[in-house]
Write a structure and sequence with these properties.
Helix content of chain A: 55-70%
Structural class of chain A: mainly alpha
Order of helices and strands of chain B: HHHHHHHHHHHHHHHH
Order of helices and strands of chain A: HHEEHHHHHEEHHHH
Strand order of the largest sheet of chain A: 1-2
Largest sheet of chain A: 2 strands, antiparallel
Number of strands of chain A: 4
Shape of chain B: globular
Strand content of chain A: under 5%
Radius of gyration of chain A: 23 Å
Largest interface: A-B, 82 and 79 residues
Radius of gyration of chain B: 22 Å
CATH superfamily of the largest domain in chain A: Cytochrome c-like domain
CATH architecture of the largest domain in chain A: Orthogonal Bundle
Distance between the termini of chain B: 31 Å
Largest sheet of chain B: none
Oligomer: heterodimer
Helix content of chain B: over 70%
Strand content of chain B: under 5%
Shape of chain A: elongated
């Protein structure tokens, strides 16, 4: 091919420099916008201490966060919204109990109480980063779309759709599908009545003092609908 | 071997190979973690995270040792002079080897910075930086003293300096997680899709030139175009890691467009390799090096180019980001682009360093094909697991562990692919450590066949 050495050099310099300049300009702009997108005003010393804890115990080589890291365990970007403070505390402090029924386990690292507090603050801050609605499994938008489709397609009860949308399957099995951290949901309607079930979802310990389930972030009418669905599972 | 200081490359190659074996053993253990139910007591003392840190750091360490060894081997022949200081090269070998050992043992005791791939603690970072500066000094002085500048030398030195500068961005503690990952990718992405591509393009061009006898002018001309395209697509292409980390939305456009172009320079490299092979001016000697050169170019295109492209568009990446799809791409890309290049260099240099001009190729070919097939199957197994995960966890929203239940079989498959790979690797390592010279009879036969033709 008739390409002169001079042209080849020109391609090299033009290609490299144009890409580099674009990249550096956008880096400066990103720094400016990240302050807003990550709510930098909430980035307190406790959050930073929590990040130190996150790094100290090498959490990131099993868990992804913002989708980066080890793929061995669930993504932690929205974990605060998923299982809340109590859920995180329980998993970190007593992993041997929290994951006793599962086939994949989490190490007991003897994390101090104060460290757990800081870690929770860090994960709460992370859960508020604007990630353009990633990850899909925790996205409210994707969830409500999926729920609407499900209700419309099969005439499923709204409670069943909520059961899925709120991530109950993460811990509970139903029809052989779901996690092993909590009990399977078959027959739960025999154990508790409608009112007890709704109360259990919002505040587990008030119904069963020995419950290991964290409080769920659902509105009372939503809890009622989920309870209606579960009460029918006799 | 034409210069005695080329000998310093040998320990670098030897250690790199041993670490490669260790890396694969650790990988097998990770696969077991993925499918087996291990007891809590074992998890508490040797968690997955520690094993993963070892697996990935071993990879980086052996590849870098390979690059350094390759540089030391190539430099005297390319500059037509001895290395500036062979003693310094040996000293640095000891320093890097010790740093590696301390880092790996440290991981077992939790001496760890807790950032994937950049786990080694700051104290060791400083040792690495000093070591790399001395390495660059040794390389730079050799080039300056020789005063025989070539495009290959410039690319190599440019790539090594770029590599060292980028490492600095991985050292500080960042308060903001988003900024942390932003600069983490300056090390990881701009290494593998920038600096390392420069280093390997230079080494690859040099070996091709030596093998084929194609004129320097032609080889170097295409080298300019290749690295120009690599950097054009690779630098702004970093944006494909900035889709979901809390950065502005324009990265979806920048990342999507530039990284869609990333296979182009690799494709050019494949075409270029095939053309140089066709236009060769020299007799085809040392078949196994040729096999690695051509095979490596193709696997580079497959693993880095096509597999990367498959999930780089934001619409796809939304569902595949941080899943086993990434694992599949990571394995195929690192093997195709960097492991195979290093093995090609080892096959070129190690027999020559022991005075063997041409090596018998039976074992080498067996190792090559076993590793290539096993790695391809490994990529497929992780790929199937990744597609399952994307669909079950992210589209159907079944939760993380319920999705892993369905993927379990594919981790067993991955384990057996890994065993196959280990067999190929062990044969290859043996073949490199104890090269068998091509028998006189075989040489005679080849000459006869040529005469008849």
């Amino acid at each position: 091919m008739a390409l002169s050495r001079g042209t080849a050099k020109l391609i090299f310099f033009l290609g490299t420099l144009s890409s580099l300049i674009l990249f550096l300009i956008l880096t400066v702009d990103t720094h400016r916008q990240v302050k807003v997108l990550t709510h930098a005003e909430n980035l307190s010393d406790q959050v930073v201490q929590g990040k130190h804890v996150w790094q100290k115990y090498n959490c990131n080589d099993c868990h992804t966060i913002l989708g980066f890291g080890g793929y061995y365990a669930p993504d932690m970007t929205k974990v605060y919204q998923r299982i809340g403070k109590e859920g995180i505390q329980q998993a970190v402090k007593k992993p041997e109990v929290a994951f006793a029924n599962g086939w994949r386990k989490m190490p007991q690292q003897n994390v101090q109480d104060q460290e757990v507090e800081n870690l929770v603050a860090f994960l709460k801050w992370v859960s508020e980063i604007d990630t353009h609605d990633w990850p899909p499994q925790d996205s409210k938008k994707v969830a409500s779309r999926a729920a609407i489709r499900m209700v419309a397609a099969a005439g499923v009860s709204p409670g069943a759709a909520l059961f899925k949308e709120k991530g109950c399957f993460n811990c509970h099995k139903l029809g052989g599908v779901g996690g092993a951290a909590g009990p399977a949901m078959e027959g739960v309607g025999k154990k508790y009545d409608l009112k007890k079930l709704a109360q259990y979802i919002m505040d587990p310990v008030s119904v069963d003092a020995k419950s290991k389930m964290p409080k769920q972030d659902v509105a009372p009418d939503q809890a009622q609908q989920i309870a209606q669905f579960l009460a029918d599972l006799r | 071997m034409q210069y005695s200081s080329q000998k310093v490359a040998y320990p670098y190659f030897a250690l790199a190979l041993l670490l490669f074996v260790l890396q694969v053993l650790m990988g097998l253990w990770l696969a077991v973690n993925y499918f087996a139910a291990l007891p809590q007591g074992l998890i508490d003392v040797f968690p997955f995270a520690t094993a993963r840190a070892m697996h990935t750091n071993l990879l980086v360490l052996w590849l870098l040792l390979g690059f350094m060894g390759g540089t030391y081997y190539l430099l005297p022949e390319e500059t037509k002079s001895e290395l500036h200081s062979p003693k310094l090269a040996y000293l640095l070998f000891v320093i890097f080897a010790l740093t590696g050992v301390v880092a790996l043992v440290g991981f077992l005791f939790g001496w760890n910075q807790g950032r994937p791939l950049l786990e080694i603690p700051t104290a060791l970072d400083i040792v690495v930086v000093i070591g790399v500066l001395l390495f660059l000094y040794n390389v730079g002085m050799t080039m300056i003293k020789a005063k025989r500048w070539t495009a290959i030398q410039a690319t190599l030195l440019g790539g090594l300096v770029f590599l060292a500068v980028l490492y600095l961005f991985g050292i500080p503690f960042y308060r903001n997680l988003t900024i942390d990952w932003y600069y983490w990718w300056w090390v990881v992405h701009l290494w593998v899709e920038g600096a390392w591509e420069l280093v390997t393009a230079a080494i690859f061009a040099w070996v091709l030139m030596k093998l084929t006898g194609v004129e320097r002018g032609v080889v170097e001309k295409w080298l300019y175009v290749e690295i120009g395209l690599f950097l054009f697509t690779g630098i702004a292409g970093t944006g494909h890691h900035y889709y979901w980390l809390g950065a502005p939305r324009y990265w979806l456009w920048i990342g999507g467009i530039f990284s869609a172009l990333e296979p182009l320079p690799i494709l050019l490299m494949v075409i270029d390799t095939m053309r140089h092979v066709k236009d060769r001016k020299l007799e085809m000697k040392g078949h196994i090096v040729w096999t690695y050169a051509v095979g490596g170019a193709f696997f580079h295109l497959l693993g880095a180019g096509l597999w990367g492209f498959a999930h780089t568009l934001p619409q796809v990446n939304y569902y595949t980001h941080g899943s086993q799809v990434t694992v599949s791409h990571g394995h195929l890309a690192f093997f195709g682009a960097y492991a195979m290049l290093n093995l090609m260099v080892f096959y070129y240099a190690m027999p020559r360093l022991r005075g063997i001009e041409e090596q018998a190729e039976g074992r080498g070919k067996f190792g090559f094909w076993t590793m290539v097939s096993a790695m391809f199957c490994l990529g497929l197994a992780f790929g199937v697991a990744g597609v399952l995960q994307s669909y079950l966890e992210r589209v159907l929203r079944l939760g993380f562990m319920p999705a892993q239940d369905q993927m379990r079989l594919w981790f067993v498959v991955a384990f057996f692919c890994g065993v196959g790979f280990l067999i190929g690797l062990l044969v290859t390592v043996y073949d490199l450590f104890f090269p068998k010279p091509l028998a006189e009879k075989a040489k005679g036969k080849a000459a006869l066949a040529k005469a008849v033709a």
